[in-house]
Amino acid sequence: MKKHFSLADLQSWERFTRANLINTLSGFKSLSLIGTVNGEGVSNLAVFSNIVHLGADPALIGFVNRPLAAAPHTLSNIQKTGFYTVNLVTEAMYKQAHQTSAKYPDGVSEFEMTGLTPEFKEGCLAPFVSESPVQYVLKLEQVIPIELNNTFFVIGSLQSMYFPEELMEEDGFLDLAKAGILTSLGTSGYYKTTKIDNLPYAKVK
C-alpha cells in the first residue's frame, strides 16, 4: 500500500534527506563525464546525470549546470572555448567519475586527481576520457538561465562520435548495455543496465 507524503512532510525533513528524495524521485538517469579545457589549457572533468536528448535533426543535447557558485568551471570553460566532450561511464571507472564531483579549485585537473586519462583527438580542444567506450563532441549553441533556482540549461549540437561499431544495430539503435554503460540514481547511486527489448515504432492500430 502506498503512503501519501505531502509537501509539508517533505519540508519538515532534514535538508539532505529532502535532497536525496527529490534527486531519486525522478528516476534513473544517464551517467556521463563532461570534459572541458580552460583558457590556460588546464583540463576539467565533471560528472553529470542530467544530460538529455533534445532532438535528432538537428542533433541537440542539453544538460543542467548547477548555480555558478557551486559549479563554475564546466560552464565557464564551455563558454570560453565553445566545445566540450561527453563520455559515458562504465563500472570500471564509476568511482573515479564520482570523485570528479569534489570541489577542486580552479586550475586543478580532475583527470590528475582521479587517475582518469585525458585523450585528445584532432579537431577538438576539449579532452575525452580515454577509459570511456562511448564519446561524443558537442558545440555550444545556447545557454538558458533558469531563474527559479539560478541554474543554467546548456544546449549543444552534436559534432562527432566515437564508439565500437558493434554497439550499433541495423536500425541505428545504440545498445549501450553491451558496452557496460552504467546509469545513476540521485547523486550517489550507480546501477548496471540490462536490455529487455527494442520495440518497433508505435503506430495507431
From TrEMBL:
Sorted keywords for this record are: Flavoprotein, FMN, Oxidoreductase
Say which domain of life the source belongs to. Bacteria
Q: Enzyme class, one word? A: oxidoreductase
Mind telling me which InterPro entries this protein's record contains? Flavin_Rdtase-like_dom, Split_barrel_FMN-bd
Q: Which Gene3D superfamilies match?
A: Electron Transport, Fmn-binding Protein, Chain A
**SUPFAM superfamilies in the record, alphabetically?**
FMN-binding split barrel (SSF50475)
Q: Where is the Flavin reductase like domain?
A: 32-167
Name the EC number(s).
1.5.1.-
Per the record's keyword annotation, is Flavoprotein included, yes or no? Answer: yes
This protein's cofactor list reads: FMN
- Keyword presence, Oxidoreductase: yes
Task: List the Gene Ontology MF annotations in alphabetical order.
Answer: oxidoreductase activity
- Entry's Pfam families? Flavin_Reduct (PF01613)
Q: Which family does it belong to?
A: Belongs to the flavoredoxin family.
Name of the protein described by the UniProt record: Flavin reductase family protein
List the source organism. Answer: Aquirufa novilacunae
